[in-house]
Amino acid sequence: MVTFKEYLHQLRFFIQGYEYYLFLLLILSIIIGLIDAGSIALLYPMISVGFQINADAIPFYGVIEYISSLIPMGSQFVHLGLLFILLTGISLILQLAYWKIAFIFQRELIVKTKKSIFSKIDSNDYKFFVDARQGDLINLFNQSPYYVQQTYDRLLCLCTDLMTSILVIVMLFLISPGGLLLVLIGGGVFYLIINSISKNISEKLGNLQIASGQSENKVINEYITGIKPIKALHASEHWGRQYIDALKVYWDKFAELMFIQRIPIIAINSLFYITIGVIVLVLYIYYADNFLVIIPVLGTFAAGMMKILPKAMNMGTYKMELKNFYPHVTTIHSILQEKKYHSVVNGEKTCNEIISDIILEDVSFSYGHAKILHNVSMTIAKGSMTALVGHSGSGKSTIASLLLRLYDPGSGRILVNGFDLKEYDVNTYRDIVGYVSQDPFVFNASIRENILFGGLFSDKEVIDAAKLAYAHEFIMELPEGYETLVGDQGVTLSGGEKQRIVIARAMIRRPEFLILDEATSALDNISEAAVQKAIDQVAKECTTLVIAHRLTTIRNADKIVVIEKGRIVEEGTHEELIERRGKYWEMSENKA
Asked: Residue 96 and residue 124: Cα distance in Å, rounded?
């Protein structure tokens, strides 16, 4: 259970760098409260003067009389009436300024929070995405920051309402302690009106929040779905830019939209008091002789009632809402402060090329308590095609993840150019690594954009990569060629077509080291043949590791390594392994 002190600490965490907004808003709320209390206080002497009642007994009447006398026109009553209207108008302007600043503050706060979440999530190890549920991540991006913004919105409302209510109550008490009872009598009707307005505003805010989610869900869903190739190909910056652009769709308009929605509420209150002033002036001019003695008290305390009762009732609502919001605030705060998923520490060496064999030395790895790899040692010869085969669950894809440095070995090491992979800047290393998985990540954009994958390459490079992946021919048969939109998750393409686009994506970066992880396992025979042709071609361009379950894809490999239950059991060429009649031969006989 989070204590109130811890909650305040979390709230301060989110506004770091924006404290000046709160200071300015606090000053404005005090000034607005004083002016509102003063404008209501003016009603008593206005009405009293109209009845020719001595108002000198009011503690602050002398100050009011002095200020009103500075108006160089009309009678004392006119002075008071004009001062009332002037103060109410000033209050209106200050309230508009207050909420304009408040909404700009909230906009800055929520955009900063969303950017911080994206940056934090992107900096986490790949294991974070394995452990987390996709729905929770989507909610974290789209819903939780909204509750942070709403928390500050309620706190700002609470601040202004509380300040104004206190000052008005003090003013009413100074006029007549017994008159405060009137505030409790007639407040119900106006409360219903304000509550109805508030309910309508809440509905509009809900619709706006839905709109904001729609502008961001596409990018976040693609980012999370494709996190493995995005990480492997060092393309996070592109998705970061896309996410910031998505934020602009809604949040650039946030301050203006919220400001416009706040104007009717502010105007209704202000116009109400201006109307009172006008009515009293009219009554004085036309019906001065018929003023009742009770009107000064009724007028002043009715105005006070209309001002403070809705605010007092809102405070209970704010308190309840703040309690509902704080779990979301706590969740975001804990995620932004969490250090659990930062075990993959970046090195300092730059890796621009592969100049020697890639070697795994006694590599072991565990997922939690389950040990996946047991002292695995193997060599991926530079410029060759090495195949890694084994049954599902044998540890093949884990080796791929280690070679992409999505994880670090529990023990042992991976040597690249003679240095431990941990010593390299992981981004420079991933820039020279190509990766193709068995589940090709294709996002809702054109084929050209899918091949570029956030990179900056020429049209010629795009076409050359597509030709290398044997994708150019089918792309040119499409109505719009490379500009053809593929739909969500590439729904308009076949499995083989998607896989060849992903291979082109990998090859456009001219990788020094290419990892093909079960690239044909989910394809039919025709698609597999097309993709296999592409694999055989691209394998000539770089050092290649092909991970396969189906042996038909790796017969031409320079070396085949067989893994079983996390251990290397044999290695050699296809012919050598068949002659040994070992595990590979058994798999071949079973047509695995």
From this structure: 42
